[in-house]
Structures are given as C-alpha cells and as structure tokens.
Amino acid sequence: MIATALAAACRLISGSAVQWRSDPNADVQRIYFGNHSSHLDFIVIWSALPPRLRRCARPVAGRDYWEQGAVRRYLAGHVFHAVLIERHAPGSDTAQAAARASIQRMAEEMGDRNSLIVFPEGTRSLNGEVGPFKSGLFHLSRLRPDVELIPVHLENLNRILP
Fold first, then answer.
1. CB-based contacts of 62: which residues, under 8 Å, 6+ apart?
2. What are the domain boundaries of the chain?
3. What pLDDT sits at residue 59?
C-alpha cells in the first residue's frame, strides 16, 4: 500500500518519462545502474518499473544515511527492501575490504529472484554530469554473470531534490 502510493507520488512529482530499450516485463534478474544526482534517483527508477517487478527490485544505498531516523529506517527496510552497505573514506585500508564485502553482499542479496538498483559513480553529481564509474559494477557483474545489466539515464533530477 505504502509502496504503491510512493511510486505514484514520485511519478507525479518528478514528471518522469520512461523510454524502455528492453522488455520491462521480462522475468529476469537485472542490475539497473544509473547516474546519480538526487536523493530521488533510486525512487524514480523503482517507481518506473512495472509493479510486479518493483516488488523484487532492491536499491543499494548507504547505511549511514538510511538508518538515520525511524522513517528512513522503516522505508529502507519495509518498503524498499534496500540493501544497505557500509561506506568508508576512499583510499583507506578499510575502504577496500568494505568495498569487497559490499559487492559480495549485493550478489548474495540478489538470491535467485531479486534485482538491484545501483549507482556506480559512488556519489551524487553536483552538476548533473555523469561521473566516472567505480569498479563495483564490474565486480558485481563478474559474480553474477547470469544477470542482465540495464543502463538507466536520469535527467534533471538534481533540480528537484539535489
């Protein structure tokens, strides 16, 4: 109920238009990967999916952000079924180990039916330009070669909720 209302509200607020270059109703696991410029990005992608696929599409998001406050925790855990990962400062010894663990966890969380929504830039763009991708998407696709990779381009969302 909440998921359906959020999806409808997101489509209304963002005015998103979707152009599919693949069958949106295909019964296959996918990794939807897109550019990242707004806190609305994953919700826009998620809301654009057919409802039956939306139930199995899990966004990957930073634990530090989504575990702040009861509302975010509830949405992440009970509405979006997000895969929350630890983030560490780039370049630290801890960062490499955490990145490997996060990739492994994402692959495991997909199981045999879930798809993921990821943002390989690793951070939001301040000007809407697509930044260089981190290597996580490559490593995830190596762990899960059976999964379709679906690129997603989001435009102008940094104007709605930067």
1. 84, 85, 87
2. 2-159
3. 94
